[in-house]
Every structure is written in C-alpha cells, then in structure tokens.
## 1
Amino acid sequence: MSKPPGWYRAGLPHIWLPYTQMAAEPPPVAVAATDGTRIRLADGRELIDGIASWWTACHGYNHPHIVAAIREQAEKMPHVMFGGLVHEGAMRLAARLAALAPGDLGRVFFSDSGSTAVEVALKMALQYHVNRGEAGRERFVCFDGGYHGDTVAAMSVSDDAGFARAFRGLLPGQIRLPLPRGDEGRAAYARALDEHGKSIAGVIFEPSAQGAGGMIFHDDATLRAVVEEAQARGIPVIADEIFTGFHRTGPLFACTGAGVVPDILCLGKALTGGAVGMGATLARPHIFDAFSGNDLDAAFMHGPTFMANPIACAAANASLDLFETEPRARQVAAINDALTDGLAPAARIAGTADVRVKGAIGVVELQALSLERLYALRAAFIEAGLWVRPFGRIVYLTPAFTMSRADLDALSAGICRVLAEV
Ligand code: PMP
C-alpha cells in the first residue's frame, strides 16, 4: 500500500466522521474516484461496491446520462431560490413523481435530504390537524426497529435503541409500537390506535423493509395493516420510502406493491440516482387542501434554502429517464435470485442468526458482533477487494441494480468466506 496522499494527511486531524468513535476506529479509506459498481481507492486498489453509497447509487456511479444532465444544468443555472420562483427541472420532476407515486399523491414538496423530507412530512401531518381545528393531535405512532433520520423530530419517531440514545431528553414523546404482524398484531395495533385516539397526529413507518434499524423485513399484510387501520380512523399515514423507493424491495414503491396509498410519502436517497442530495415529500389532495385559504397562518411554513436545487432536479429527472428506459425491475429480480443463492451458505456458518433477501437487499444477521470483530470484518472485506460495511449485528448488501452476476457472486462468496475466517 502506498503512502496516503497529502490531502488525506492534512485533513485527517480536522475531519469528524459520522457514527464513528474517532479515537478507536481504524482510519477511513481514501477514495479517488467511482465508476459503475467500483470504488477506486487513492492507493490504486479497486473495490466492488456492495452498499451503493448508503443505498443510493441504484444505476451505478457516474452514469453518463445523469452526469451529462448535471453538467448541462450546472452551466445553465446551478441554483435559484424556490420562493416565488420555479424552474423547468422542478416542475417536470414534480409532475413525473406525482404520476409515478401510488394513487393521488399529487403534491410534491422538495427538500435537501431524507431527514428533511421526514421533518416536512411530520410537520405537514401535524399542521393538517391544526388547520382543521383539531388541536391536541401532537403525537406520532411509530414502530420498533424504525429509522427515519438523524434530525430531531425524525429521531423521535425512530427506534431509540442506538442512534437516538443520547438525545432522549430533547425528544418529544411518541407512541412506539411493535409492527402489526399477523391477525393478533393487527388487533393489538388497532387497540393502541383507539386507546391514544385524538392525541395521534399520524403514523409513520418504513413499508416492507426497515433499513438502518436492522434490515428487518415485513410482508404486505403487515404493511396494509399499518395503513388501513390508521386510515379507517382518519389518521394520516406517512410512508417513509427513502430506502425502499425506486425498486429497492422489488416494486417501484413498496406501497404500490402492497396496493395501498399512504397520505404522505417521503422520498430521498435513490431519487437522484445517488448523485446529489435531495428529498421529496408527496401529499394527497385532502392533506394539501387543509393548507388552502386566505390565511397565511394556514400556509405550510417550511422552506429549505436549497429546496428543489436545479442540479438535484436534473439528476433526478435523468434518474427517472433511466427507470423508464432500463430494465430495472428485471435486474432487481435477478439480484434477488443471485443474493438468495450466493448468501445461502452463510446460514451454515457458526454464529449466523438469519439469512434473508428481499428485492436487491441481502442480509446476514449474526447472533452477536463485538466492536473488535466489526472492525476486523470491515478491514477483511477491503483486503478482499469488497466494500461491505456491517453495522450492529448486520452484514448486508444493497448493490447497484446494474451490477453483473459475477460481481454479485464475488460479494456473496466474499461475505461467506470472510465471516467463516474472521
Ligand atoms: N428514512 C430512511 C428510511 C432512511 O433510511 C434514511 C437514511 N438512512 C433517512 C430517512 C434519512 O435520510 P438522510 O440520511 O438523507 O437524511
């Protein structure tokens, strides 16, 4: 391995990394470039990327169609404020998202990240009640194992097991329930909704797959139970499809696959094909209509400086072009088969608790994972030429949909080999 570049050595004493014990963890890996499903390191090595940059780069990195759209937009107008001004990219994107989203989710509020899309959704649901004169609906129903972002309100509706532990004192108390699995789960959920009655502002959940909370899957019956029981009681449902949207679990949106229409939908991550940060919160007409009138107090009081950034819109429109023209659904089905075959041997390795695959998500859950072994596994994957980054007790793959069978097999075989050896 060659000496790290000057910029790496100069920056290392100053950079503060996410979710990182800076005193103990091995130093980060210097990246020089990305290409397709590869990460090129500054020392010349190349890694097959099993994570797609936190589940975003669904078309592979540097897709020429997205790069061209960004370049063209950057020359024309990198940014313009969205207060009182609109631009073609945002208008086209809003109309396209409204057409693709389940049912009549026809109003799009843009923001700059997934967490912000969630904050927007929570504020929308809350003010919806205020505007309709139903004060006191201020608490959200959320679920064990859920994760919705690192900003304060998003943290408050996430599972408090890890990410939010230090901040409990700051967080508004929400109503956290088990996911309503099976008939009994559904009945218990319905009872809890009745019990909390008019204190509930909304329900927020990740349809089909809970991501950062542990890559936990649930079936369509559970998904439908969450939505139907709440909607039967007039409680708005927020579907956070920031992870699951754009085919990650199979269908374009997990809600579409289950045949339900949430009242509010959050998108992010793969929205721009992973090229630029962007969030979008979509609302149905009854939500939007509650904000209409002559009263400025009834308007939605939110507006991130970089909302609907034209470069992000250009990337997102280009990404939607690719979803229209490329066989992404078929590729996800093929990835599902490849990961199912490739990860199966991991079930026989001592210490494996579960192996599961849904869409283009493959998971090996371990019975336990010490910090020492976590760091050792991460290093061993890099040694093996793979970018796989376990967290908690989870070793997982969320590859780009364009990944070849050979690379998928290399990732799966690498996971099985490293888990057996390290
Ligand atoms: N919701 C879900 C389901 C997510 O997976 C994430 C990010 N992991 C977020 C919200 C937050 O998105 P961001 O990191 O872009 O703020």
## 2
Amino acid sequence: MPRVALVTGGTRGIGAAISKTLKTAGYKVAAAYHGNDEAAQKFKAETGIAVYKWDVSSFEACAAGVKQVEADLGPVDVLVNNAGITRDAQLHRMKPEQWTAVINTNLGSLFNMSRNVIEGMRARKFGRIINISSINGQKGQFGQTNYSASKAGEIGFTKALAQEGARLGITVNAVCPGYIATEMVKAMSQEVLETKVLPQIPIGRLGEPEEIARCVVFLAADDAGLITGSTLTANGGQYIA
Ligand code: CAA
C-alpha cells in the first residue's frame, strides 16, 4: 500500500515541488492550499494530485481538512508542514496584524495540523512530520521579527515532538531552506535581494524548490527512522548552524 502524504501550501513554490517529488517517489499525495484557487486548479490539472482548500491557521479547518483527506486517500502517514507567509517590516513599523498573521499561519499551523494527525500516527506506530522552517529562523533576519520568531519556534516544536514520537515510530524533523527561487523571495525588493542577500550566498545563486523537495523525500522514507529531531539546512552555505 502506498503511503499517504499531506503537504500544506502544497500547490505553489516549495510545496508544489514537494508534492510532485513525493508523488514521483510513490506516495499518494494531498496538497492543501488556502488562497490561490487558480494556481491550485492548474497544479491539479498538470499533476493529477488531489488539492484541498483550508486555512491552516484555524484548528477547526485543519480538523475538517484532515478528516476529508483521510476519507479520500486513507490515514496520513507523512505530514509536511510547509505553508507559510511573510509580512516583512522593521519592528518599529510592524502592525499587530502583521505579527499575528505570520505567527498563526507559520507556527500555529504546526499545532493545528500535527494535533489532528498525531493520534492516528501513534495508534499505527508510524509517522513522519517534516516542518519547513527557514534559515531566517536560525540566524534572524532584518525586517522579519515575526517570521524569524515563527520559524525558530518551528525548530523548538520539532525537537519537542520528536521526543514524544520516538518510541512510536514517529519521526519529526525540520528542513531549513535558504533563499529559494519562489514567489515569496521574488516578492522582495530586487535591490534588497541583489545587494543584501545574494552576496551572502557562497554558492552564488538562489536555491531551487526541487532541492528542498529532495530533503523532504529523504526524511519521509521508511528507512529514515533513525533521523529525528534534526534540522537539515539547505542554504548554499549562507548560514552554517
Ligand atoms: N541588514 C542591515 N541593514 C539593512 C538590511 C539588512 N538586511 N536591509 C535594509 N537595511 C538598511 C537599509 O540599507 C537602510 O539603511 P539606510 O537608511 O542607511 O539606507 C535601512 O535599513 C532601511 O532600509 P529600507 O528602506 O529597506 O527599510 P524599510 O523599512 O523600507 O524596509 C524591509 C524594510 C521591507 C524589511 C526591507 O529591508 C526588506 O525587504 N528586507 C529583506 C527582508 C527579507 O530578507 N525577507 C525575506 C523574504 S523571503 C523569505 O522569508 C523566505 C525564507 O525563508 C528565506
């Protein structure tokens, strides 16, 4: 029986690459998304991957979404918490809404999603939870107190839940991408990207979404059971933790 993988933010950017790579590796994949219907329908038509729409910052929406995915595809074996947003601003200009949106979506979603799959994983004595954190959770980033806090929080969550799942065949790991060529990074000012970010990347280029997807497939595998609580960095040498 193929294993079932659920990827949040799974129809665009890094998440789309993760969904596709997991499908190629033999998983039954569900890709959850929230905002962009057009991109999701295009993704579904191109890949044949099932798409589901809900807001990962809502616990109730996650409970209903997971229930639907499990009814359609079967119990979730692999959860990839990838959905994330930015609302960049220096703290002295940051509005409370910019703080709460980022914390609730990026970090709140780890509770909302993992809580809704963890009991099943414990009962079946197998699970893989992979959290897509960020280089900016490891090193901090100018203009991202909200985002850096959420991404650092994801690493703490990963390390704690790894300890709880270890005896039950559930591994929990974080992947920390650097700057990847996605809409999120391209939305930055070109000047900031070229003068502040690119010069700091020793390999001299942005990463590709597929380079993150291969980290996820590695951690999701049945024979990756020894690896738990780890943080896998993939950032072209920009920050060596
Ligand atoms: N380090 C140090 N100083 C910086 C800086 C940095 N990274 N970025 C800007 N500054 C300086 C500027 O040079 C400027 O100095 P001067 O006034 O002396 O010229 C001063 O700070 C103000 O800069 P801005 O005019 O840009 O400030 P702003 O308030 O208008 O904009 C900002 C702030 C929107 C946060 C902008 O700086 C920015 O976009 N920064 C990049 C944030 C970033 O890296 N986001 C990542 C998005 S991708 C992502 O998050 C994915 C992932 O996981 C990696």
